[in-house]
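pasting Zinc ribbon domain-containing protein YjdM for the record, 118 residues
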Amino acid sequence: MSDESQVCPKCNSPYGYQDRNLWVCPECAHEWTLATVEAPKEVVAGPKFLDSNGVQLQNGDTVRTIKDLKVGGENLKSGTKVKGIRLLEDPVDGHDISCKVDGHGSIYLKCSVVKKDS
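structre below
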């Protein structure tokens, strides 16, 4: 038998012990073999593009700004409607959204400063 302990794959208890060819968890009574323990699966991140309210954004959505923003020396007022956004897989200087705003042209925005328009 091994003197080492194993972490229980069911409850994550660090006190798993070996009993012949099985490992046993004293806290939840789960039994396993090392062959049945899979390699950790990749953690799938939640939705990547969430607006300021936690709503999922998609390409082509219409959003509104939630605060005044300085864009190229001019102010973009809170509540400005932005149609047809494009989400960027590779952010540009921390900005997740590429869009065109009337009177301002093409700009980049962060998801945290917009809310999805209904």
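The radius of gyration is 25 Å.
Residues 1-42 form a domain with the N-terminal domain of TfIIb fold (CATH 2.20.25.10).
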